[in-house]
Design a protein that fits this description.
Layout lengths: L1 H35 L1 H5 L5 H10 L1 H26 L2 H7 L4 H37 L8 H4 L4 E3 L5 E8 L5 E8 L14 E14 L2 E13 L4 E12 L18 H8 L14 H15 L4 H10 L11 H23 L6 H30 L1
Length: 378
């Protein structure tokens, strides 16, 4: 019963530190990324609701990226804290084996590894795909927020706007519109055969998904290079076909793990994965799957390296340097995972090495720990 309380105490302390560090890093990174997402609101014309939903759905990805580093810091800080309070010394004098405490660290590492695997394999792709689908909702576009006085705006595909002046009531004065993609296809008859249109109006305003213009002219160039001019006192242009230049096709990191796996196995006949057959695209797929599956495998390895801290005696004059050395080695391994990850899609041997290396090294380190504990008893 006493040992269970001790194990629970270590587990709770380390996990508590891990959660605090993880969410501190994630909160800072999310604020920075949310600022970058302001382009959706300012330049692309999406509503504030879309902006906040899109930002929030990206939180899980940020959290996942900081899991290994947060665990490394939490475990190191906890062990140093236990040592300063001489809690380890009390345990050793009562006959508790160091390998059992090490097993607690490994158990926590496996739990966090499982957490990261669930996030990276299932949760992140699902939430990112939802966030990308939000950008396909053209009803949420706010064209009026993009248009500014004395500025050309090419935010929308195939459309260029110029507004000389924008009044406080959002009335637009002296409007110029260039349509090269037939987005405003309700302008003239036989619009399907026109090449592009130019619209000039003295004033106008935007009402939901309609652009209402007054006192202007529509100049249309058809496929025969014939120019037709149509004057109007009032006209309404639909904006339902307007779309931004923001990428709406799901990226690799937003694609489910099962689809990426089928892409690698060439089972992509009925899959909605663009360019899956291309070799360099498959390399990106392998790299992404390696991040989702392989990166979490390095967490138990980090826990084993940091576990060597419990074997150094407090009175040792080099103990201080050894602590930093173990932390430095663990940190270098985390950097190595990111560097090596970029090459997993280039060579199958590198991808295999990326997965095998942490497993083999973890087994060897664990066997060395057992040997070290046995030598201490002898």
């Amino acid at each position: 019963m006493l040992k269970n309380k001790i194990y629970n105490y270590f587990f709770n302390e380390i996990f508590k530190n891990f959660i605090i560090i993880l969410f501190t890093f994630a909160a800072i990174a999310w604020v920075v990324r949310a600022v970058n997402f302001l382009d959706l609101l300012v330049d692309d014309g999406y509503s504030s609701g879309i902006y906040f939903k899109y930002s929030i759905l990206n939180i899980s990805t940020i959290v996942t990226r900081f899991v290994p580093l947060s665990f490394l810091l939490a475990l190191t800080i906890s062990i140093v804290k236990f040592e300063k309070k001489q809690e380890f010394l009390i345990l050793w004098t009562t006959g508790l084996s160091k390998i059992k405490i090490t097993n607690v660290f490994i158990l926590i590492a496996f739990f966090i590894t499982l957490l990261q695997l669930i996030l990276s394999l299932f949760v992140n792709p699902y939430l990112l795909n939802i966030s990308r689908s939000l950008l396909n909702d053209t009803d949420q576009l706010s064209v009026n927020s993009v248009l500014k006085s004395n500025e050309f705006s090419d935010t929308f595909k195939g459309l260029t706007f110029y507004i000389e002046r924008k009044k406080s009531n959002d009335e637009l004065v002296n409007i110029f519109i260039k349509d090269t993609s037939n987005n405003l296809n309700t302008l003239v008859e036989d619009s399907s055969k026109k090449k592009d249109s130019t619209i000039v109006a003295k004033r106008g305003f935007i009402d939901k998904q309609k652009l209402i213009l007054f006192d202007g002219i529509i100049q249309t160039l058809n496929e025969k290079n014939e120019i037709k001019n149509v004057e109007f006192k009032k006209t309404e242009l639909t904006l339902s076909n307007v779309s931004t230049r923001t990428i709406t096709q799901p990226k690799i990191q937003e694609t489910s793990s099962s689809l990426l796996y089928k892409c690698i196995l060439n089972q992509n006949n009925d899959l909605n994965i663009t360019n899956c057959s291309r070799k360099n695209y498959k390399g990106e797929v392998v790299q992404n799957l390696s991040r989702r599956l392989g990166s979490p495998l390095y967490i138990p390895l980090v826990s084993l390296i940091i576990s060597f801290l419990i074997f150094y005696k407090k009175e040792n004059r080099y103990n201080f340097l050894k602590k930093y050395m173990l932390f430095f080695v663990s940190f270098i391994i985390l950097i190595f995972t990111e560097v090596c990850l970029k090459y997993t899609g280039i060579s199958p041997s590198i991808a295999i090495f990326y997965f095998v290396f942490p497993v083999v090294l973890s087994v060897l380190l664990y066997l060395y720990l057992i040997k070290k504990i046995y030598s201490e008893k002898v």
